């Protein structure tokens, strides 16, 4: 999504406020941080600030890949961070795929359905919530 440079600060402030209010409402102890990257390349430079990088890649799903997300959840330790990347409508380009591979991003299929850019992050957050809040805490 392209944002008008003049409006970026206000949009980030608004999104951070939403994140804070949502965290308070759901009794979370950690408030998610909202960051802005003006381009895909800038996002790739920022990957070093995260312990893991995973990208939703519909071609992985078509090829039957269904374990990268579950494997990530099993590997991650408390306090570690994950950068989740979701491509635009139409998917991740070949050029972006090369950049993702250069930073050793894991490519994850999100099941047999093609999800919209707006809903794919909610799918991953829901899966993470299920795994960490319900499944893992009950099976430790």
Automatic annotation (TrEMBL):
Location(s), subcellular: Cytoplasm
Catalytic activity: uridine(1498) in 16S rRNA + S-adenosyl-L-methionine = N(3)-methyluridine(1498) in 16S rRNA + S-adenosyl-L-homocysteine + H(+)
Gene Ontology MF annotations: methyltransferase activity
Alphabetically ordered keywords of this record: Cytoplasm, Methyltransferase, rRNA processing, S-adenosyl-L-methionine, Transferase
Domain of life: Bacteria
GO biological-process terms attached to the record: methylation
Domain Ribosomal RNA small subunit methyltransferase E methyltransferase intervals: 2-128
EC number: 2.1.1.193
InterPro entries: Alpha/beta_knot_MTases, RsmE, RsmE_MTase_dom, tRNA_m1G_MTases_N
NCBIfam families linked to this entry: RsmE family RNA methyltransferase
Cited function: Specifically methylates the N3 position of the uracil ring of uridine 1498 (m3U1498) in 16S rRNA. Acts on the fully assembled 30S ribosomal subunit.
Family listed: Belongs to the RNA methyltransferase RsmE family.
Protein name according to UniProt: Ribosomal RNA small subunit methyltransferase E
Species in which this protein is naturally found: Listeria marthii FSL S4-120
Lineage: Bacteria, Bacillati, Bacillota, Bacilli, Bacillales
């Amino acid at each position: 999504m392209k944002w008008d440079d003049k409006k970026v600060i206000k949009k980030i402030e608004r999104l951070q406020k939403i994140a804070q209010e949502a965290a308070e409402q759901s009794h979370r102890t950690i408030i998610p941080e909202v960051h802005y990257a003006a381009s895909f390349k800038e996002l790739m430079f920022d990957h070093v600030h995260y312990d893991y990088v995973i990208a939703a890649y519909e071609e992985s799903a078509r090829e039957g890949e269904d374990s990268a997300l579950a494997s990530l959840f099993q590997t991650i330790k408390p306090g570690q961070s994950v950068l989740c990347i979701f491509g635009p409508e139409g998917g991740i380009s070949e050029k972006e795929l090369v950049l993702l591979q250069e930073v050793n991003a894991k490519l994850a299929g999100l099941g047999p359905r093609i999800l919209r850019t707006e809903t794919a992050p909610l799918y991953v957050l829901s899966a993470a919530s299920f795994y960490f809040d319900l499944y893992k805490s009950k099976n430790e």
